[in-house]
Amino acid sequence: MKKRFCTAFLVAFWLLLLTVPVSARRRMPRLVDDAGLLTDAQADRLLDQLDEISQRQKADIIVVTKNSLDGKSPMEFADDFYDNNDYGYGAQKDGVLFLISMEERDWHISTAGFGITAVTDAGISYMSERFLGELSDGEYAKAFRIFADLCDDFLTQARENEPYDVGNLPKKPFPAVRNLAIALGAGLLLAFFAAEVMRGRLRTVRSQQTAGSYVKAGSFKLTRKSDLFLYRQITRVKKPEDHDGPKHSGGSHTHTSSSGRTHGGGGGKF
């Protein structure tokens, strides 16, 4: 009887273990701020955001900060950290990891599983344009929130439509240009009203139909006239060149990590 009970218990335990999402067995949280770039309040807020997006999208979104990469390249460290800590949802280990190294001021994004499809090479370049300014200015919490929001947007786009890629990237916001346009518009409007007020005060000035009204009668005599050719303008348009070589079709370049898993990604300096 006791043996049967133990067998039944083990079977139930393994069935329960198999029903737990793979991501729930990861060894580390989705935020690992070893470099201490965030305050406690910022870390709590960011971790809540990463957990919510990860669980809803069924893909781990991770942020890792380090002071040193122990001699590894940013790509090697990011890939190994992802693999060795069992990040990723499902059999393909879907997810995206954002690594910051303060040692040489490196950043790197490592993608896995569906993350490779959703966050392409062109997508990583687009993302970096959105968060690099904040990283350079030391606004790390803001940079990480931007990264998380973009991952959410990119994953949704890839699941519901064509993934963001070359020729199909989201439009970039231009708050500075928009504010400048508003300021210029307001300035032009004020200038228009000021000009109208000044024009209304010129009671003695009236517009004339011809220039002759401004010439004193009998003071101008035309004795000779001729046509003189001054210049000509030629516009040349370069003919588009035909390139026989292969054209970049987008997507993600992939490589194999030290654990033998496939990753995409990219990075740079900040």
Characteristic terms for this protein:
13% strand, single chain, 270 residues, 6 strands, alpha/beta, six-stranded mixed β-sheet
What can you tell me about this protein's structure?
With 270 residues, this protein is α/β, with parallel strands linked by helices. The chain has 7 helices and 6 strands, in the order αβαβαββααααββ. Helix 2 runs parallel beside helix 6 and helix 5 packs antiparallel against helix 6. It is elongated and about 100 Å long.
H/E element order? HEHEHEEHHHHEE
Label the structural class: alpha/beta
Strand order of the largest sheet: 1-2-3-4-6-5
Note the gap between the termini: 65 Å
Largest sheet features: 6 strands, mixed
Give the overall shape, derived from the CA principal axes. Answer: elongated
Mean pLDDT across all amino acids: 82
What is the count of β-strands? 6
β-strand percent reads: 5-15%
Q: Rg to the nearest angstrom? A: 32 Å
What proportion of the residues is helical, as a percent range?
40-55%
Number of helices, where a helix is a run of at least 4 consecutive DSSP H or I residues: 7
Low-confidence stretches: 5-24, 243-248
Determine the oligomeric state from the structure: single chain
